[in-house]
Amino acid sequence: MTNGVDTMRTLTYREAVREAIREAMQKDDRVFLMGEDVGRYGGCFAVSKGLLEEFGPERIRDTPLSESGFTGAGIGAALGGMRPIVEIMTVNFSLLAADQIINNAAVYLHMSGGLFNVPIVIRLATGGGRQLAAQHSRSLEGWYAHIPGIKVLSPATLEDARGMLWTALQDPDPVLIFENSGLYNMKGMLSVDAGPVDIDRARVRREGRHVSIISYSASLFKSLDAAEILSKEGIETEVIDLRTLRPLDEKTFLDSVAKTHRALIVDEGWRTGSLAAEISARIMEGAFYELDAPVERLCSAEVPLPYAKHLEEAALPQVDKIVDRVRKMVGGDG
Amino acid sequence: MAEFRMPSLGSDMEEGILVEWLVKPGDRVKRRDVIAVVETDKAAIEIEVFEDGVIDEILVPPGRKVPVGTVLAMIRTEAGQGAVFPKEKKFLVEDAPPTGAEIEGKAPPASDVPLVPASTTSLKRIKASPYARRLAAEQAIDLRRLKGTGPGGIINAADVEAVVPTAKAVPPTQPPTVSAVEKSVVKDYAAAMRRAIAKAMVRSNREIPHYYLQTRIDMSRTLRRLESDNLKRSIKERILPVVPLIKAVALALGDVPELNGYWIEDRHQPQEAINIGFAIALRQGGLITPAILNADLKNLDELMASLRDLITRARSGGLRSSEMTEATVTVTSLGDLGVEALYGVIYPPQVALIGFGKIMEQPWAESGMLTVRPILTATLAADHRATDGRRGAQFLDALNRYLQEPLTL
After folding, report:
1. Which SUPFAM superfamilies would you find in this protein's record (chain A) (predicted)?
2. What CATH class does A203-331 carry?
3. Measured between CB atoms, does B131 come within 8 Å of chain A?
4. What's the count of helices (H) and strands (E) in chain B, helices before strands?
5. Distance set, CA B403 to CA B244, B328, B409 (Å)
6. What does the pLDDT look like over B223-276, one tens digit per residue?
7. Is the peptide bond before B349 cis (omega within 30 degrees of 0)?
8. A288 and chain B: CB distance < 8 Å anywhere?
9. How far is CA B230 from the centre of its chain?
10. Any chain B CB within 8 A of the CB of A291?
11. Which region holds residue A298: left if phi is over 0, alpha if psi is between -120 and 50, else beta?
12. A331 contact residues in B (CB cutoff 8 A)
């Protein structure tokens, strides 16, 4: 790098994902994108806008409303030597393709005795907070993180949005990338030469010594905002971005808990049977004697997400709730 | 009355942490019962008792590090029933001068000094966070002395840290609190293990005049027998090639007993029992050599079971004190890593170490014919003070002989 001005530029999360797809298409002609509205309409979140003109209908393929069908076709293409990127418009609709993902993609390598792997990448939008009501606001990535045989990624930062796709395409096994739809408009600085990133490690996004917040995706930024507020009160919060939900990089968060002795998990999924529950259990197994307070979880209210803006906001984890919870956990000895 | 002392679990051990009592005053114990767990630099070891009797008093609370030889508990033995001795308290603390007569079944003296185990003195459970408990144990602070300021009166780390200075400020008769250096060493298991190994090996190289012998052994007969035996077994019961080697070592030591035993205080002390210490690499690094007791009396199945059991327990914790202290000779094998021959460093105060390399197909001349045979390089490192090369050679010769007659194994 020479200097900051020339090597950084401003772009959105959406543009970072688009760049990643474009780079993958240019690098490897086995890569193609398919999904509902990805072509002529430019993607329902405008992620693939312009790609049809650039790469043509052979490689940017519009599909009918048939998640099971086109996900299955993607799996077949992957088995046939292609490197498909399948876009499922949102995780809510992925349930129609769950059979393909869970019963086929995840187990093919095992069922074939190691003969056939499925190098497919499935991108899905997830999350609430955009007033799309109950059927369009689910955060089901934790369900997929339950399944052995697939990797589940959750890029929060621009760097990860830009870099995880190529790493995922290099993976011989199925990888699901969950993009929180609330992040697509997020703007930020990214290096001109940003490229592939690892998908194996969680990251400490902010260092602190009083409490660890373990989070991912959109909740990461709420946690970072909360940490900023808390730091003014003398509470130093460590914020961890899980990045990969399966397999979990537990060393990073266990090390953090060993340092801070308190853990709060912020997860947009529901609390019961959640990823937050899994992380909490792992802290009990791996760092029990480091705990100075019970592990806490801040998840979405256990209701179908409401349409009304104020109700939806009330149902999701928010900065003020995080601040409030941490204050109680630290209990004034900051 | 008998004294139960902190045992030495290896020549390199100077002190140990009494981690846990598995008995309480009034409990009846038999010889070989495991009554406590002690953590050394190498591992947590279950400590056995050597008398039949009744636990009278526990003198060292869990969490305390004490030197080898410290009296940990008093045991009323059958022989000493009724007899009362003024107690020699090597360890205890300011307010506990010998109190003369003790009455049967009396609970340990209630002192407000560090960490009398809550279970024996108070039935009330103290609410403290796991981290606070750990800190308190490390600093030898009695949680009952603390007032919790956490939610619902829970004692948290801050409450413990608040009293640390006071705890440190009672030096004269207070046993030394664990220093920062020691603490970090205890935490850093790998470093502690390295130090322990370093100490033993430095002593070995300084004190023991080693001599080394090496021989190559044709393993075809033994392996053939093992193979045909293993065919009759389920996969789980199959015997690894190292097992007949251990057995052959045990038998050969029977023929050359001078190599089986110790050199202590300028005196050679051969041992009758043949307890073979087997070097086991630990996953976190380092190694430990627990003993297969009475290896010469065990058949191959029993040896295999012992070995499997030892390896499992060495890696998960739960080795017993007798296994750690009673090895009379050590066997180490690096064959699985492809090493052809190894020249070991004797583990003091033992007087010999047998090393095995990899069994490799090699050209082998026999009766004027050249063939290919599975060949093992066996080495002996022995203490020249205890034996001479000639006895060592006889041992290797015997070892070879047993391995040529697998039916004797």
Report:
1. Thiamin diphosphate-binding fold (THDP-binding) (SSF52518), TK C-terminal domain-like (SSF52922)
2. alpha beta
3. yes
4. 10, 20
5. 8, 21, 8
6. 999 999 899 888 888 898 899 999 999 999 999 999 999 998 888 999 999 999
7. yes
8. yes
9. 32
10. yes
11. beta
12. 149-151, 156
CATH 2.40.50.100 in chain B: give the residue spans. 2-77
Contact at CB, B150 and A293, closer than 8 angstroms:
yes
Which tokens hold the place of B143? 């949680």
In terms of Cα–Cα distance, which of A226, A232, A244 is closest to A326? A226
| pTM for the model | 0.54
Where in the sequence of chain A do the CATH 3.40.50.920 domains occur?
A: 203-331
Q: Which residues contact B43 (CB under 8 A, 6 or more apart)?
A: B288, B314, B317, B319
Band (B167; pLDDT cuts 50, 70, 90): very low
> Over the stretch B261-294, which tens digit does the pLDDT of each residue have?
999 888 899 999 999 999 888 877 778 888 999 9
3-state secondary structure of A293: coil
Tell which of B149, B154, B156 to mutate to test the A interface (max A CBs under 10 Å).
B156
Q: What is the ipTM of this complex?
A: 0.75
Where in chain B is CATH 3.30.559.10?
198-405
Q: What is the CATH number of domain B2-77?
A: 2.40.50.100
Q: Which residues, numbered 361 to 390 in chain B, qualify as contacts with chain A under a Cβ-Cβ cut-off of 8 Å? A: none
The CATH T-level fold of domain B198-405 is Chloramphenicol Acetyltransferase (3.30.559)
> Which superfamily does CATH assign the domain made up of A8-191 to?
Thiamin diphosphate (ThDP)-binding fold, Pyr/PP domains (3.40.50.970)
Contacts of B149 in chain A (CB under 8 A): 331, 333
